[in-house]
Amino acid sequence: MRTRLVSMGLASLAVLALPAAVDAAPPVAPATTSPTAAPSAPPPPSSGGPMAATVTALGAQMSPHRAAYRLTLASSREGSRVTGVVGAMNFAWNDVCRGWTTEQRFQIRFLYSEADDQEMTTSYTTWEAKDGSVYRFNVRKQTSGQPDEEMKGVATLNGEAGGVAHFERPKPLDVELAPGTVFPTAHTLLLIDQARRGDTPVYVRPVFDGSEAEEAGPVSAVIGQAKPLAKDAVVVAALHKDKAWPVHLAFFANDDQQALPDYDTAMMLMDNGIVQSMLIDYGDFKVRAELVALEPLPKPAC
Fold first, then answer.
1. d(CA 294, CA 92)
2. What is the per-residue pLDDT across 248-277, written as a single tens digit (0 to 9) for each?
3. What is the pTM assigned to this prediction?
């Protein structure tokens, strides 16, 4: 199963995929964590038409913030080899005038019934133009302390006409992005726009996040009616918010022959882009992400 980014907390929050081989004993090595390099300065964003105007306008209403989530095993099916999940996700989303930056890191340990525990660490640094036209990304993944994968590059979109992603790592590669593709923050903003209007409960878009050197896969969103948030002192104290939309996201590979999603999530999305909670369904088991700390960050004087 692959790693994908989820539109969460306005900036895309990484959702950890299963280790590649859950039936094999994972390798063990000393932890050697390297910081993720910040993306280099992006080129000037280009005009992207009505979609870009919508994204830019909605972005002005969002809340830059720093958040922390606790990861636990919500449930597992009979026969699942995963017996426990322990971990944490942390990220900061900032407004930097011409774009949004995201710094994310999460660590998670999978406990198995017939194999050694396996720990995965992922760090993401991204920059996304406010009109949704440019996206820089740097992704580093480790498994049980060993470097596993690094993705780095820049992607550009020409409005709704599609675009191209230029990968620098793991090797130079250009990937075509289909018409209608969006980047993670723009996807979150468009979901909020759909939720506010309430006229399109099902919303499907290809979303490119840079976590795989391949074309953007479609993400299908089902948006429910706004509901009162569960009593959450963290959210109320920091943002004075009390309502959110239930949103179900299904992440598909870019493969016409694959009818089922790689995985799906259910989340409570507030109208400022912050997610209060999320349930990630991997098939054999589900992982709960629970907000435990939230700090608003100042907006710049651009």
1. 10
2. 988 887 766 667 777 788 888 888 888 888
3. 0.80
